[in-house]
C-alpha cells in the first residue's frame, strides 16, 4: 500500500480539520452480523482470535473492505488487559464476560498485578503492526474505562442496575479509589502500548457509566478519567470517550482533556452543541434504526448529518455497537449514502 492511498479523513475530523466528506465507522463493526465472522468463530473462540495476529487482523480488516468505512478498530475485548493482571474471566455465550474471582475487598484489589503488555499481550502489538501494513485507513486502539471494567469485576458479570458496583463505590470509598487507581494505570499502559505498536487513535469505552449521576461521576470517576486522558495527551494521538446514556455527563466530559466525545441517540448533536461543547463529536444513530425501512433510515441519517456538519469535527457512528441482526447490505448502503451526501 502506497502512503498516497492512505485515507486520513477520520483523523482530520478528530482534529477538527477540513474534510472532503463526513468520515464514518461503526462500533462493533466486526462481529456476528457478518457471515464471514460467523465462519471464523466456528474455528476459533473469541480469545483464540485475539491471540492469533493473522486471524485477528483479518477480522479487523474485513468490515473496512466490506463496508468502505474510514477507520478500523482493533478486534479485541475490554476484558483483554484484565487477564494478565490476575482476573479470571470466561466469555460465556449468551451472557458475556463472567468473572470467577470478583472484587469484594481491599485485599482483592491489592492482589491485582500491574500490567506489562509487551510481555503478557505480545499478540496485540503484533496484530496492530500487521494491520498498519495492510490498512489504507487509520487504526483505532481501545480500552475499557475503569468504571465499566469495575462493574464487571464487582458484579461478577454483566448487570442491569450496577447496584453492587455503586454500593461498593459509596460504602468503601478507599477501596473504590484503590481500584480506580489500579485500573487507570492498566488502561494507560495498555493504550500506550497500542499507540507504540501503531494505533493512530484510541477510544475509551465507558459503556455503563451512564448509570451514575453527574454529582457522583464528578466525585468518584472524573479524577480517574482526567488522569487517563492527561497521560494519553502526551502522545499527540486523538482520543475518543464513549458512553451510553451519558447525556447528563456531557458538561463534565467537556472539561476532560479528551479530543472527541462519542454520544448516543438520547441527545441530538444540536443539543450537544447548545451545551457549548466545541470538541469533535462522534455519533449518534440508534443502532435499532438499522432494522428500519431504508427511507426512514435515510431520513434519520440525513437529519443527523445536517446537524453534525454544521461545525468542523464530526464523525458519523452509531450510538452503540452493531448487533447480530443488522445486515451487511444495510451498512454498505448507509456508508455509501453518508459519503455521497456529505461530499464537498
Automatic annotation (TrEMBL):
Q: In its UniProt record, which GO terms are filed under biological process?
A: protoporphyrinogen IX biosynthetic process
Q: Where does substrate bind?
A: 28-32, 47, 77, 152, 207, 320
Top-rank taxon: Bacteria
Enzymatic class = lyase
- Annotated keywords: Cytoplasm, Decarboxylase, Lyase, Porphyrin biosynthesis
Q: Has UniProt tagged this entry with the keyword Lyase?
A: yes
Q: What is its main location?
A: cytoplasm
HAMAP family attached to this UniProt entry: URO_D (MF_00218)
Name listed for the protein in its UniProt record: Uroporphyrinogen decarboxylase
Q: What is the native source organism of this protein?
A: Pullulanibacillus camelliae
Amino acid at each position: 500500500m502506497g502512503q498516497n492511498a492512505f485515507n486520513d479523513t477520520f483523523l482530520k475530523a478528530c482534529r477538527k480539520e477540513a474534510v472532503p466528506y463526513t468520515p464514518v465507522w461503526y462500533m462493533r463493526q466486526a462481529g456476528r452480523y457478518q457471515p464471514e465472522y460467523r465462519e471464523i468463530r466456528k474455528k476459533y473462540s473469541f480469545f483464540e482470535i485475539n491471540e492469533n495476529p493473522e486471524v485477528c487482523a483479518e477480522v479487523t480488516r474485513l468490515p473496512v473492505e466490506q463496508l468502505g468505512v474510514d477507520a478500523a478498530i482493533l478486534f479485541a475485548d475490554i476484558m483483554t488487559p484484565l487477564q494478565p493482571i490476575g482476573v479470571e474471566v470466561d466469555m460465556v455465550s449468551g451472557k458475556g464476560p463472567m468473572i470467577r474471582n470478583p472484587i469484594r475487598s481491599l485485599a482483592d484489589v491489592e492482589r491485582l498485578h500491574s500490567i506489562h503488555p509487551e510481555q503478557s499481550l505480545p499478540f496485540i502489538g503484533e496484530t496492530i503492526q500487521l494491520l498498519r501494513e495492510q490498512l489504507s485507513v487509520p487504526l483505532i486502539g481501545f480500552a475499557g474505562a475503569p468504571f465499566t471494567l469495575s462493574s464487571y469485576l464487582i458484579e461478577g458479570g454483566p448487570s442491569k442496575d450496577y447496584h453492587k458496583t455503586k454500593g461498593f463505590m459509596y460504602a468503601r470509598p478507599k477501596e473504590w479509589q484503590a481500584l480506580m487507581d489500579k485500573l487507570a494505570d492498566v488502561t494507560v499502559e495498555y493504550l500506550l502500548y497500542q499507540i507504540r505498536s501503531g494505533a493512530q487513535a484510541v477510544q475509551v469505552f465507558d459503556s455503563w457509566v451512564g448509570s451514575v449521576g453527574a454529582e457522583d461521576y464528578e466525585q468518584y470517576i472524573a479524577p480517574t478519567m482526567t488522569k487517563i486522558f492527561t497521560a494519553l495527551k502526551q502522545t499527540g494521538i486523538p482520543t475518543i470517550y464513549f458512553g451510553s446514556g451519558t447525556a447528563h455527563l456531557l458538561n463534565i466530559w467537556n472539561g476532560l482533556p479528551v479530543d472527541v466525545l462519542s454520544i448516543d441517540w438520547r441527545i441530538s448533536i444540536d443539543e450537544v452543541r447548545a451545551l457549548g461543547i466545541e470538541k469533535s463529536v462522534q455519533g449518534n444513530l440508534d443502532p435499532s434504526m438499522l432494522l428500519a425501512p431504508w427511507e426512514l433510515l435515510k431520513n434519520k441519517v440525513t437529519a443527523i448529518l445536517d446537524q453534525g456538519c454544521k461545525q468542523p469535527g464530526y464523525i458519523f457512528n452509531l450510538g452503540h455497537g452493531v448487533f447480530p441482526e443488522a445486515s451487511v447490505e444495510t451498512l454498505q448502503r448507509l456508508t455509501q449514502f453518508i459519503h455521497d451526501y456529505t461530499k464537498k
